[in-house]
Amino acid sequence: MTPETLEVNARSYRWMARPIVVVCVDGCEPAYLDAAIAAGVAPYIARMRKDGADLLADCVVPS
Questions:
Q1: Which of 25, 26, 50, 27 is nearest to 37 (CA)?
Q2: 29 closest CA partner among 8, 11, 56, 60
Q3: How many degrees, rounded to 5, is the angle at CA 23 between CA 44 and CA 16?
Q4: Do the bridges between strand 5-8 and strand 11-14 make them parallel or antiparallel, or are there none, so unpaired?
Q5: Every domain of the chain and the residues it spans
Q6: Which long-range contacts (CB under 8 A, 24 or more apart) does 28-31 make?
Q7: How far apart are CA 25 and CA 33, in angstroms?
Q8: Model confidence over 18-29: pLDDT tens digits?
Q9: pLDDT of amino acid 42
Q10: Hey, which of 6, 31, 44, 48 has its CA 20 to 30 A from 20?
Q11: In this structure, are residues 37 and 30 in contact, taking their beta carbons and an 8 Å threshold?
């Protein structure tokens, strides 16, 4: 049974309609991923970018 809400840090969030996966590659420049995809050595990341979402986050200290 899936709950209707999820509580994190005293905040309540509506449960997502479908599963979500977030991948954070800390310390990686986007150009590194671009080069790996161009070289054909990162097909899974290429597929995630094509079929999913590709977002860049700002780092804050402490990370």
A1: 50
A2: 56
A3: 110
A4: antiparallel
A5: 21-53
A6: 30/56
A7: 10
A8: 888 888 888 888
A9: 95
A10: 31
A11: no
Q: Which residues contact 26 (CB under 8 A, 6 or more apart)?
A: 63
Task: Specify the residue for token string 């990370």.
Answer: 63
37: tokens are 């995809």
- Amino acid identity for residue 32 in this structure: Y
Concatenated DSSP letters of 10-58: TEEEEPPSS-------TT--HHHHHHHHHTTS-HHHHHHHHHS------
Residues of the chain with pLDDT under 70: 1-2, 63
Dig out the tokens for 45 from the structure. Answer: 């990341």
Beta bridge pairs of residue 8: 11
